[in-house]
Amino acid sequence: STGPGPGLLPRASHVSACHEHRTLHHKLNAVEQRVEDAVGKLEAEVSILLDAIEDPEWSSLLDTAGPVIDILDSKGEETAL
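That's the Placenta-specific protein 9 sequence above. Prediction below.
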């Protein structure tokens, strides 16, 4: 028999598999870059929001000295912190 041995792919199949492998890696790299860009943008947005919340103009709204209502509490009772 002149064909490839057991477990060996013909050259055309091997080249095609390598091309598919490279294409998959390029696509994964593109997805990874988009995820990293999105995470970077989200981190910047969170930083801006945290800075805004910590601003003295908003800090009075975050004062929890009064009663707090736990919206996840099925009893709906007020609890003091």
